[in-house]
Fold this protein.
Amino acid sequence: PLEMVLKELKPVLENSKISKYGQNIKYDLLVLRQRGINLQNIAFDTMVASYVLNPSKQNHNLDDIVLEYLNERMTPIENLIGKGAKQITIDKVDIEQVKNYSCADADTVLRLVQVLKPLLEEKKLVQLFYNVEMLLLNVLAEMEQNGIRTDITYLEILSREFAEEMSKLENKIYQLAGEEFNLNSPKQLSFILFEKLKLPVVRRTKTGLSTDEEVLKTLSPAHELPRLLLEYRELQKLKSTYADSLIELTNPKTGRVHTSFNQTVTATGRLSSSEPNLQNIPIRTDLGKKIRRAFIPEEGYLFLSADYSQIDLRVLAHVSSDPALTAAFKKGEDIHNTTAYEIFGTTPKDVTPDLRRIAKTINFGIIYGMSAYGLSQQLNITPEEAEKYINGYFKKYSGVKTWIDKTLDEARKKGYISTLLNRIRYLPEINSKNGAMRAFAERTAINTPIQGTSADIIKVAMLRISEELRVRSLKSRILVQVHDELLCECPKEEIEEVRNLVKQEMEKAIKLNVPIIVDTKTGTNWRDLA
């Protein structure tokens, strides 16, 4: 009986002097919490260790880690529960089989720890693993458990509004086309656009004529139908991906959506979010803003949002030590404005919105290792013009060019690149004879130290804020992280204290001042012992 099992396991799992190892242990932590067990002294997660050792790997499933580090194959779960329509649930499987399968899992994790621990030490990843990623695991579990409250009634009204608007657009499109057709069929749409309306062909694919978003944007000035179709597609996406999906994913017991924050997915060290993806809620359009309004704080609480200003560009200024870029930030200038007048030779007051837009694209393009061709596509200019802009940028910010050259040289020699917190990313294609593969690796070599360091900074900020909220026994909590932004939920009476606390801890995190909570030799969590 479950009660007996929980009674026997609870003292062991809650004993802070006993280290716990696991694979994707955040999942176990949340499941046990629902059963009233507060798992203590989480010392090692093999999934997180595999990720820290090589974040570029496709996945960090136990089967793959075991094959790579122990050279063994695990029994597939399908051997127990079957596949497809005949698949059964684990409680229907003979207990002896389940016992063997479960014990193999536990035993394998234990053996993996003995292999992965020395590797983390050898590659100087101990601090990153124990005092950032392993501690963050607890913070993410809390955030997932907290969830974020949704206004179901509002979402239902919004879904109906979107459906009505889609219906109106559908009728207008049929009138313009002179017939009814399946709006979601590329083949039927291709016939209407290119054969019936005789619009110019923009791009061909292996299966026919392309009708994707870029093609419709190109055709919009020539005819109203492509423009209306773009509007229809946006509404369709907002309705299904957000309005309807959020209703479905809201937990009826809590009235909140509980996303999963994925710690071992992106190669740069950034977190991702799924079911639902709360990092991808649209904000730029008015329709997107309507979706955001569906997220509401608890009664008596307020949302507090804090984000880093131009974090990636500030990291670039730091790592490159470029005097002009650093000075612009120290003076508190609009960095895109500064770049515009620096490379176009105007005065600050003569920078037009268009020049600022070009400068902004160049600033971010440099971080992502964008080529002259890539920039020309972004700005809709010739590659020659784009080349001129990039050369102008490097002339004014010569420190950035020196840093890029040095970084690429280092990556070619070592075969990997690292962030300021020593997060590594391997680049096996950096010396490839294949030009496209080599170019991709070079872009990655430039981008990873920037975006990866920004990811490290926000993670350290989350740890510091979470710890400070705990020490002060505040009711405020972190709900969501969206790259350089944190969203907290605070009781009204705590808002000013938490606002100051968050600002203070985010500023400390910029120095990558990691709170030392875990003894990296033994894996002992001092907070648990306290």
Observations:
- The chain has 22 helices and 14 strands.
- The CA atoms of residues 408 and 445 lie 6 Å apart.
